[in-house]
Specification:
Strand order of the largest sheet: 2-1-7-8-9-6-3
Order of helices and strands: EEEEEEHEEEEHHHE
Shape: rod-shaped
Number of strands: 11
Radius of gyration: 49 Å
Largest sheet: 7 strands, antiparallel
Oligomer: single chain
Strand content: 25-35%
Helix content: 10-25%
C-alpha cells in the first residue's frame, strides 16, 4: 500500500496537517560562493557557508471533507486554520515543518503567508500560498572575563650621573688648602692629586693659577 505524503506544521504541542497536499512544492537550498579576481589566473570561486533553505508551495483549505482530494478528514474551518498560522507567525518563534516521505523535518519561520477566496463554484474554500525559511539557532560564544589590567608602573627617570666638579686654581693655592676648603680636611689632598696627575705632573706641590682640577 502506497503511503501518502503528509505536510505538517507543529508549534509546541499544537499540530496542523494540510488537508490538501500541494500539487508541487519548491525547496531552495542556497550555498554561498565568493568570486574573486586573481592576477594571471582570472576569476576564482571560493566556497562559503550553506545558506538557509526555503520552502514554497500553494494549496487550498476546503470547507468540508472530500475524499477526492483531502488526505484526512479532520477538517477545520479555513478561517480557523488561517488564524492558527498567523498566531504562530506572530509569535516570532520557530515552527517545525515536516514532510513525510521527503526527509524534511526542520525548524522554520514564516516570512510570507497569503490567502484568497477560491473562485465561484467552490464556496467556503480558501486558497493560500506560504513561504517558510529555515531557522538556524544562533550560537552565542561566551567570552571569558579578562583579568583587569594593572596600571603601568611609573617609569623612574634615568639616574643622572653627577658631573665631576671643576676647581680653578687660584694664586697662592696648594692641594692641601684646596682639600681643606672642599673636604674640610687638608689631609685628603692626595685624592685631588690622584685625579689630576696628568694636569699637575709628578710634583704635587707645583700647581699654577688657572689650572682646572677635577674634584672627585
Amino acid at each position: 500500500m502506497k503511503v501518502k505524503m503528509q505536510f505538517w506544521l507543529r508549534y509546541g504541542s499544537e499540530n496542523l496537517q494540510l488537508p490538501v497536499n500541494p500539487s508541487s512544492f519548491e525547496v531552495a537550498s542556497p550555498y554561498g560562493i565568493e568570486v574573486i579576481e586573481v592576477d594571471n589566473l582570472g576569476e576564482v570561486m571560493i566556497p562559503k557557508n550553506r545558506g538557509l533553505k526555503e520552502f514554497r508551495f500553494e494549496s487550498f483549505l476546503p470547507a468540508k471533507y472530500d475524499p477526492a482530494y483531502c488526505v484526512h478528514n479532520r477538517i477545520i474551518p479555513p478561517n480557523d486554520f488561517i488564524s492558527v498560522i498567523e498566531k504562530w507567525r506572530d509569535a516570532e518563534k520557530p515552527v517545525r515543518f515536516i514532510v513525510t516521505t521527503a526527509n524534511i523535518n526542520t525548524l522554520v519561520l514564516i516570512p510570507e503567508f497569503a490567502y484568497w477566496p477560491s473562485p465561484p463554484g467552490s464556496p467556503g474554500e480558501v486558497q493560500f500560498s506560504i513561504s517558510l525559511k529555515e531557522y538556524r539557532m544562533p550560537v552565542v560564544k561566551k567570552l571569558s572575563p579578562s583579568a583587569p589590567k594593572s596600571p603601568p608602573k611609573p617609569q623612574r627617570p634615568p639616574k643622572q650621573e653627577d658631573k665631576p666638579k671643576i676647581y680653578v686654581v687660584r694664586k697662592g693655592d696648594s692641594l692641601w688648602a684646596i682639600a681643606k676648603r672642599i673636604y674640610n680636611d687638608g689631609s685628603k689632598w692626595p685624592t685631588i692629586y690622584n685625579a689630576n696627575k696628568k694636569v699637575i705632573g709628578k710634583n704635587p706641590n707645583l700647581i699654577y693659577p688657572g689650572q682646572k682640577l677635577v674634584i672627585p
